[in-house]
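Hi F.,

I've been meaning to write this up properly since the lab meeting, where we talked about keeping a consistent format for the predictions we share between groups. The idea is simple: the sequence comes first, exactly as it goes in, then the structure tokens exactly as they come out, then a line or two of notes. No screenshots and no reformatting. I'm using this chain as the first example so we have something concrete to point to.
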Amino acid sequence: MQWNSLVTQLFGPYHGMRAADDFLQGEVMFDGEPLTVIGTTNHAPIGVRLALAQARVVLDTLHRHPGRPILLLIDTQGQQLRRRDELLGINRAMAHLGASIDLARRRGHRVIGLVYDQALSGGFITSGLIADACDALPEAEIRVMRIPAMARVTKLPEDKLSALSASNPVFAPGVRNYVAMGGVRALWRGDLQACLREALAHTPTEDRRAQDGAERGGRRMAAAVVQRVLDAA
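Output, unedited:
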């Protein structure tokens, strides 16, 4: 879905959102309450510029509008693979974005991610997966690593990983597999305003991804291992 069609469905034709190249930003009204919206479009690669631009809006919201909810609209092909961004410290810029979102959560801002098109790799990890909860449209594409790349990293044959992906969501890309693993809380269908209203009303106060993954059968051990670590601390 195109970003302008999405925000029109969410906030009406006079939404006030604007795009500057691949960066989306706006302060909108939803059910009579203000909402900060940031995000990316055009399958944007997240480099230093985009990471810092998003972090700046998050931090400005913390400073000027304590407690205001934040919606992250996610469409990214992952981190920017350019020498310039590497030299400028893309790792630190993306960590800064993730830390800014985490700080917003700790300061009482409800932060919701919505994958409306594509979410890959580090661009997704430092945004939607750090939000209080991340939802997605059913037609969205989500993955951290393609099976050929996974095979190169793990040194396992592609056919073995493909076979594993048929029964284990951990090895398989796709939005429904991320729902099963708990990375995506829910899919938004039909009335998107009602979906956003529901998401804001039931934003979890603690990270439930591991618990959701266990309950849905996509990650059976993560929650138990986390609890064992906490108990041993």
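Notes:
The two ends are 45 Å apart (CA to CA).
The chain is about 45% helix and 20% strand.

If this format works for you, I'll send the rest the same way.

G.
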